[in-house]
Design a protein that fits this description.
Elements: H1 7-18, E1 22-26, H2 30-47, E2 48-49, E3 58-62, H3 64-73, H4 78-85, E4 101-102, H5 104-127, H6 134-146, E5 154-155, H7 157-167, E6 182-189, E7 195-198, H8 208-215, E8 225-227, E9 230-233, H9 243-248, E10 253-257, H10 282-308, E11 313-317, H11 324-327, H12 334-354, H13 356-364, E12 369-370, H14 372-375, H15 382-385, H16 399-420
Parallel strand pairs: 1-3, 1-10, 3-6, 10-11
Antiparallel strand pairs: 2-12, 4-5, 6-7, 6-9, 8-9
Length: 421
């Protein structure tokens, strides 16, 4: 009958409509946050049946979470990320040195501007007929000198080149519009203070690697990233997770991972040997302050999400507040990186098992099952879960990709049959 869709399409449409959309939101936290997220994702992949973390409907990433989300959307599995980012000598290992390349261009540009700025102050004082106080002159000079201070210590060009090569390999893409899944990477417009959703309307044309670079540009460490004449910095300045981006896209089960929580060093937890955090000096005070601010903001956001999206199920995974190893960790040791990833794996497994009674019926609604037999194995380690041995240049098709290929083939067959008739 004219205008009636083929039966297989109607069945496919009903099946798609019956399957709730599943999404993933990843917070930031620098390389440490990325390490934790990889360990947590390996645990989730290992412990849940009926879900493929390379085949979700929506991915949202902020800062280092943008890197992990972009890799997942490009069919790089959590296991492959472990070998890429954490396991020294495996595949094309992502060295910490890529994050610590001095921003020589920024230093040179700012340094070369210094004589002109100082000369401008001197000329203004010479031309000013009114006598200015010494303090006013010092203030003018200080203002000029501040403009010559570099906006960041390190550049991300080496990381951008690394990711560009990775996402340009066969079967992957550096273009939001060409991905088979929805990917959103969040950054902050420095001049307006507003959040920008790369991959969303009006920002789909920006290369994924450029969006990741902008989202991870932590002020003070990395210079703002210029995209189409606007300057962008870390996406966590406004929100920690930006989970609403996924929920607005129709996600009904949203898995969230946040790596940074404030540390509880109180004696009630038996932490007397650690002493007071203030004894660690300014870095410890700033680290705790930063974590407390972003975590309290995230908790308030989660309450709003649950009120605003009552039909959506939102699950959050994060470290314990008493985890000293996570708080005092150094991210520049391969040995410690493996230990932290292992700790994230074990913590996430423990969380799943402890919440089993509530999680089983909730996940069942979305066609997902807890592998209780796997979770009950107390001796299981992250090494047991590293089952994906494919090289990074190998890409698995995935169920949805196979469905798309089948749909395309059937369309071609239908066209051929119509022409034959």
């Amino acid at each position: 009958m004219a205008g009636k869709a083929p039966a297989w399409r109607r069945v496919s449409a009903r099946k798609s409509a019956a399957v709730p959309a599943v999404g993933l939101a990843l917070a930031g936290g620098g390389p440490l946050g990325g390490i934790y997220e990889v360990g947590a994702l390996i645990a989730l992949s290992d412990s849940l049946a009926g879900i493929d973390f390379n085949d979700l409907d929506v991915y949202v990433g902020v800062s280092s979470g943008g890197f992990v989300a972009a890799a997942l959307a490009n069919d790089i599995s959590p296991t492959q990320m472990y070998r890429l980012f954490i396991d020294q000598g495996a595949d094309a290992s992502l060295s910490p040195a890529l994050f610590l390349r001095p921003a020589l261009g920024e230093f040179a540009r700012r340094g070369l501007s210094l004589p002109r700025l100082v000369a401008g102050v001197a000329l203004a004082r010479f031309r000013n007929t009114e006598r200015r106080s010494v303090m006013e002159s010092v203030a003018a000079l200080s203002n000029a000198l501040s403009r010559a201070i570099p906006t960041g210590l390190f550049n991300q060009r080496a990381l951008d080149r690394f990711l560009t090569r990775l996402f340009s390999s066969p079967g992957r893409s550096n273009d939001f519009r060409k991905l088979p899944r929805k990917l959103f990477v969040i950054a902050t417009n420095l001049d307006t203070g507003a959040s920008t959703t790369f991959g969303g309307p009006g920002f789909e044309h920006v290369p994924i690697t450029k969006a990741v670079e902008a989202s991870a540009a932590l002020p003070g460490l990395f210079p703002p990233v210029d995209i189409d004449g606007a300057h962008y910095v870390d996406g966590a300045l406004n929100k920690t997770l930006h989970a609403s981006v996924a929920l607005d896209a129709g996600v009904r089960l949203l898995l969230c991972v946040n790596a940074l929580v404030p540390f509880d060093a109180g004696p009630a937890q038996g932490r007397d040997a650690l002493g007071k955090l203030s004894h660690g000096g300014l870095p410890m005070v700033l680290a705790q302050t930063f974590r407390a601010i972003i975590h309290s903001r995230m908790e308030a956001g989660m309450d709003r999400y649950r009120a605003r999206y009552p039909d959506a199920d939102i699950l959050l995974f994060e470290p314990d507040r008493e985890d000293a190893d996570m708080f005092f960790a150094s991210i520049f040791s391969y040995a410690r990186r493996k230990a932290l990833c292992e700790a994230a794996y074990r913590k996430t497994r423990h969380s799943l098992l402890a919440r089993r009674a509530a999680l089983e019926p909730l996940l069942e609604k979305h066609g997902i099952r807890l592998k209780v037999e796997v979770l009950s194995d107390s001796e299981r380690s992250i090494g047991d879960a590293l089952t994906d041995t494919r090289p990074l240049n190998a890409r698995k098709p995935g169920v949805r990709q196979a469905a798309r290929d089948l749909s395309h083939t059937l369309d071609q067959l239908e066209t051929w049959l119509a022409a034959a008739r």
